[in-house]
Design brief:
single chain, 344 residues, alpha/beta, four-stranded parallel β-sheet, 20 helices, 8 strands, disordered C terminus
């Protein structure tokens, strides 16, 4: 589901949508029940339920503080692999808030909102610096990308309807800061194409969605010291949304930043939605290739636009004994000086 085949295909075949449909069909045919399926369903239900996700995020933070995550990694196996990817909260969760005069709305995400709250706050700051009046509709929920990746198409369509309703109060641009979320939000028209009551609304919603780097203009900023920055192309940004030049232009506008390219930059890091959990062996190989390419480029910091990529690459760097920082584009643009100084 990295969708690199879409970039390579001269006929423009929408492999991503085809594969999502196939996964849903296979899921419907092969519902065996049992503990594994119940666990998978519970995980998907958690990301779409704010209170449960908040509780899980707090548990993960406690596990990090007590050293349980390190213990899990040391034990190895599938448990150790999953533990290596467990997020540690950047800070307090991002709180939604609406304003009647907004000309931009923010899709805050689910994991982004809880575990990457500072990235969401940085997103709002950047948009306000552009002169926008920013709102974050309070009824929004999980985009459903992980559900459609797992073959849970009906639940994904249900979540899409919730979000379309949540953002229906205006025709303002909808800004997403997670590549996977943005790619899926832009596909709502296709997702609900067969629903006569929602197809038109879904297409209109999708036309309003922009990635953060599409909504920002390059502007002069200054790093506190010279920095070599490696930009990691998230697959759902480069292949899913055809966005490559905009984030690089934003980084190159920063005085003191030298953008260094990594070998085979558009190759997947192995995260790919839930792929790193369902196919850990292959995901680990892809992770190793990506980490080697990054280390060969010798950057001071790695910047990307997707939380899954951040967690996957950071885990791979730790496994190699590297302390190289991996940060979201929004935080890097908003807090370059603080990040260089070593703030979390």
């Amino acid at each position: 589901m990295c969708r690199a085949c879409e970039t390579a295909c001269p006929s423009g075949v929408p492999f991503g949508r085809i594969m999502e449909g196939a996964r849903e069909e296979l899921r419907d045919r092969d519902r065996k029940g049992g503990f594994a399926e119940a666990l998978g369903r519970a995980a998907l239900d958690t990301v779409a339920h704010e209170q449960r996700l908040a509780f899980f995020t707090r548990l993960t933070d406690v596990a990090h503080r007590l050293g349980l995550i390190r213990l899990g990694v040391w034990l190895g196996g599938r448990l150790g692999w999953a533990a290596s990817l467990a997020p540690r909260s950047e800070g307090p969760a991002f709180r939604l808030g609406e304003r009647a005069d907004a000309d931009v709305t923010v899709f805050a995400g689910c994991v982004m909102r809880e575990a990457f709250g500072e990235t969401d706050r940085a997103t709002v700051r950047l948009l306000e610096q552009e002169g926008h009046r920013v709102s974050a509709p309070e009824e929004q929920t999980c985009c459903g990308a992980l559900h459609v990746h797992a073959g849970e198409g009906e639940r994904a369509r249900e979540l899409a309807r919730y979000n379309i309703d949540a953002f229906s109060g205006s025709d303002a641009m909808i800004v997403a800061n997670a590549a996977g979320c943005g790619a899926h939000l832009k596909s709502y028209g296709e997702l609900l194409a067969d629903d006569p009551l929602w197809a038109e609304r879904a297409t209109l919603f999708a036309s309003r969605v922009r990635d953060l780097c599409e909504a920002l203009k390059p502007r002069p900023r200054r790093a506190s010291r010279a920095l070599r920055v490696a930009y990691q192309d998230a697959c759902h940004l480069a292949h899913g949304q055809r966005i490559r030049t905009q984030p690089r232009a934003l980084l190159q506008a920063i005085e003191g930043v030298t953008l260094v390219e990594i070998a085979d930059a558009e190759r997947c890091c192995g995260s790919a939605g839930v792929y790193n959990l369902t196919h850990p062996e292959i995901a680990r190989v892809l992770q190793g290739e990506k980490v080697r390419a990054i280390l060969d480029a010798a950057p001071d910091v790695v910047v990307t636009g997707n939380p899954g990529c951040m967690l996957q690459i950071a885990a791979g760097l730790r496994a190699r004994g590297s302390h190289l920082r991996v940060v979201h584009l929004a935080r890097f643009l908003s807090e370059t000086e603080a990040l260089v100084a070593g703030d979390p």
